[in-house]
């Protein structure tokens, strides 16, 4: 029996390693292609390694375009969206989990229903509202529609429901108000969940492509995902430049995940899902 379990564990490990390699292959291909010349890529060569490695693609991205400005635009919008989402999710989750009010269940169901509506369905109404507010070609047009996350509210509610009510009642007896309860008791207890939600939110905000493409046409207001369109030529695509831009765009997401990896994994395993 012990030998059979070892064989099974070995097979599972091999399957997981193979799956991991397949998942990493596109990223490896992207990095190696960024080191090739455009002629080498379009020539149809299937060689994975570049014949003559070059950083020309990165030089073009960093010197021939305002990539630094786009990077700052993406960083600012992503950080603001992430911070606002964590705040609103924690606050709304606490209200739904620990307070009772008229119409609570109906309101929560309506919030959950928005999770099932694709963005493409509300894209035109959102654009018309944004245009009415005069926010076309403004970074606020990216931030405002993403200040609240229905998934974040749901996740926070599920997690906060597992916090013992006696703990909160004891804090109230000691004179703690609702704000102090949130800051001193609830926030530390839901930190793993907030870390996981924060990483998801930051990744989605950083990689958001469709909405900025629609709402922004001023070059100085572009975000980094739009750089992939900027470097596409009219008659020919500079693939090495596009791959270099894609590598630079991916690096912050990888860095954020590596920094908060432990909190991310802990948050996923402690979401309080029922």
UniProtKB/TrEMBL annotation:
Sequence ranges assigned to domain ABC transmembrane type-1 in this UniProt record: 71-260
InterPro entries to which the protein is assigned, alphabetical: MetI-like, MetI-like_sf
Superkingdom assignment: Bacteria
Keyword Cell membrane carried by entry: yes
Pfam families: BPD_transp_1 (PF00528)
Membrane-spanning ranges: 7-29, 70-94, 106-129, 135-160, 181-203, 241-260
Membrane topology: Multi-pass membrane protein
Location in the cell: Cell membrane
Keywords annotated in UniProt: Cell membrane, Membrane, Sugar transport, Transmembrane, Transmembrane helix, Transport
Main location: membrane
Family according to the record: Belongs to the binding-protein-dependent transport system permease family.
Protein name listed in UniProt: Multiple sugar transport system permease protein
């Amino acid at each position: 029996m012990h030998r059979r379990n070892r064989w099974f564990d070995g097979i599972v490990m091999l399957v997981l390693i193979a799956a991991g390699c397949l998942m990493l292959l596109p990223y490896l291909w992207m990095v190696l292609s960024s080191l090739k010349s455009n002629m080498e890529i379009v020539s149809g060569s299937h060689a994975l390694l570049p014949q003559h490695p070059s950083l020309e693609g990165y030089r073009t991205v960093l010197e021939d375009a305002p990539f630094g400005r786009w990077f700052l635009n993406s960083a600012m919008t992503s950080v603001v969206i992430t911070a606002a989402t964590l705040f609103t999710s924690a606050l709304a989750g606490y209200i739904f989990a620990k307070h009772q009010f008229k119409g609570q269940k109906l309101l929560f169901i309506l919030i959950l229903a928005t999770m099932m509506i694709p963005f493409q369905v509300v894209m035109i109404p959102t654009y018309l509202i944004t245009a009415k507010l005069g926010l076309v070609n403004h970074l606020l047009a990216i931030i405002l529609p993403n200040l609240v996350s229905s998934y974040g509210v749901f996740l926070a509610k599920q997690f906060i429901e597992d916090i013992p009510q006696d703990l909160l009642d004891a804090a109230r007896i000691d004179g703690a108000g609702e704000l102090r309860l949130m800051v001193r008791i609830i926030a530390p207890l839901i930190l793993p969940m907030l870390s996981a939600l924060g990483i998801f939110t930051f990744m989605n905000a950083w990689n958001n492509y469709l909405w900025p493409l629609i709402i922004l046409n001023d070059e100085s207001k572009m975000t980094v995902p739009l750089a992939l369109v900027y470097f596409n030529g009219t008659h020919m695509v500079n693939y090495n430049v596009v791959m270099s831009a894609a590598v630079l765009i991916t690096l912050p997401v990888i860095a954020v995940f590596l920094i908060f990896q432990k909190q991310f994994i802990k948050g996923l395993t402690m979401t309080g899902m029922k």
